[in-house]
């Protein structure tokens, strides 16, 4: 029977690179592996064909000869034995890795596990983000059980080695394949990979070795922190197994919006209302910055929506001595009610300016709205 083209066997194009070849092989080998197709002779034959194709196409020299001569290269004996030996490639390792098992007899006892990281959300005021603050939180965090000191066993007793895996946390089984016997390794189901069995669990932690405790932790809010940023406290997370370090505590900061300022990066933005007279004649106006009140002189003829910038009056740059700016948009306020005297004075002003007022076509105050 004529052999199928190796590229067709793996379902790839002739110009495929090394990564594509390996990826295709893994998928095909997993699909036709004898463990996934027990008693299926056709799948076993296809598995052999896939392995043979990969053995050739994964070897640069053999692939070159195959591309030039096809299957005739093996018949002619190119390269001392053609394609038969696969260059000493160990399929048991790659197939077992691909199938989710360990290599040949390698122990994977994970040992003491580091404690889990803990995330905690904290809300702060806008001013606290500007000036920094000292806060205290009391999160519930799993810590070492005081009764059993983290062993999980009842005081006076100890955990015993798992008889199923011999304390390794892994079990190994031998499987016959077309390439010989493969040893496949998986997590022990008796001890769930722990390697030990607790026959008399601690009554306080129920064998977990950890219990939830409310911990009081002081938190320093740095100046200039942004909404959504996190502060890390190393070793303040959950307790690890005996002999392993604690996890970390990550405090995510949520900043309450300000009624006065809008933040963009390290600059702050605000609006300041001024009277028509101040805009027309010029004036010294007070501006309330986060760092205190500051007077600012606006020139005569200041237009609505004019923008002024107060340097260094914005948000501190995180972990720096630099400061952002305060950007102020001036809003000219047109009075809603006027006294008779004010109306007469404005009529005189409008007449001298050549504007019609009241019901005229051209309204003086329209330019300020």
CATH class designation of the domain at 262-368: Mainly Beta
Q: Would you tell me the overall average pLDDT?
A: 84
Major sheet strand order = 12-13-17-16
* Count of individual helical segments: 10
| Contiguous runs where pLDDT drops below 50 for at least 5 residues | 76-109
Q: What's the architecture of the domain at 262-368 in CATH terms?
A: Sandwich
Shape: elongated
Which range best describes the helical content: under 10%, 10-25%, 25-40%, 40-55%, 55-70% or over 70%? 10-25%
- Structural class designation: alpha+beta
Q: How much strand content do the residues show?
A: 25-35%
Distance between the termini: 90 Å
Q: How many whole angstroms does the radius of gyration measure?
A: 39 Å
Major sheet attributes: 4 strands, mixed
Describe the structure.
The chain has ten helices and 17 strands. The chain has helices at residues 6-10, 18-32, 41-57, 60-69, 72-76, 78-81, 91-98, 126-131, 276-281, 340-353, and strands at 118-124, 133-137, 140-144, 160-161, 170-177, 180-187, 196-197, 210-214, 217-221, 230-233, 249-255, 262-264, 267-275, 283-289, 292-298, 307-310, 326-333. A four-stranded mixed β-sheet has the order 12-13-17-16. The chain has a three-stranded mixed β-sheet with strand order 1-11-10. Helix 2 (18-32) runs antiparallel to helix 3. It is elongated. The N and C termini lie far apart (90 Å). The model is unreliable at 76-109 (pLDDT under 50).
